[in-house]
Amino acid sequence: MSTFVHEEIESQPACWSRAAEVGSAGAAGLPEPGEAVAVVGCGTSWFMAMAYSSLREAAGQGRTDAFTASEMPTGRDYDRVLAITRSGTTTEVVRLLAESTGTPSTVITAATDGPALAAADQGIHLPFVDERSVVQTRFATSTLALLRAHLGESLERVVDDGGRALELELQPYLDAEQVTFLGSGWTIGLAHEAALKTREAAQFWAESYPAMDYRHGPISIAQPGRLVWSLGAGPTDLEQDVAATGATWVGHDLDPLAGLVVAQRFAVALAGRRGLDPDRPRHLTRAVVLDNA
Length: 293
Known about the structure:
Blueprint: H1 4-10, H2 12-24, E1 37-41, H3 44-58, E2 64-68, E3 80-84, H4 91-99, E4 105-109, H5 115-119, E5 122-125, H6 138-150, H7 156-165, E6 178-183, H8 187-202, E7 206-210, E8 226-230, H9 238-245, E9 248-250, H10 256-273
Parallel strand pairs: 1-2, 1-3, 3-4, 4-5, 6-7, 6-8, 8-9
């Protein structure tokens, strides 16, 4: 079954190249080195905020904290609020931007207008990565590609790996009864996103944890017929511990952002096997706009 999300997943390497050009050019409003930055979003956008925050701090560019938009603490001083929202209408993001008076704010969005752009001081528009599917893929990954390029990373290998990710065989994984995604550092956010995609698209039992925390309880559900999937290189001895449970270890020699593409494809393939429409997951809408906000 051809769906919007299939096309959007396959377009990601090309989208990353375009987004990297925006980031490398130094789009106005992106955090400057030394700024203390709060990065906010909801759902998938929050997980991209987590990944970027870890990358920015590791690059020595300043304190960077990630929050889901509804839970950003009050009373903390930041030099900039950076918001990520595909639709530009997400209620919690709009509310936070409206309340962040006195702190410079920037929003990254696929929209060309709307309340988030109106509430922010500056906007970065990525209309070429907008999506028709409810399930978010290329907007989120392209936003992270833009931000990685702005940190000074070359995305050439990432784009190449994205192409490879579209060709990898999924069949060995599709009979699993459960999957746990793991990440370390900046890929913890990617692990959370991979699990969310699997739950959204396929209504499938998926969990996610920091890799080093996995042995502190979650490993108890590992058993034959279940997957433990690492986004990026895991701890050297963890694969052995997983093998001892009978579960299957999954890892790929790809940049972790490209590894997320494999997980996206896994989620959509599972949806197809289950007779589900990954473009329109149950109980979800393309943007959360609350009537009582």
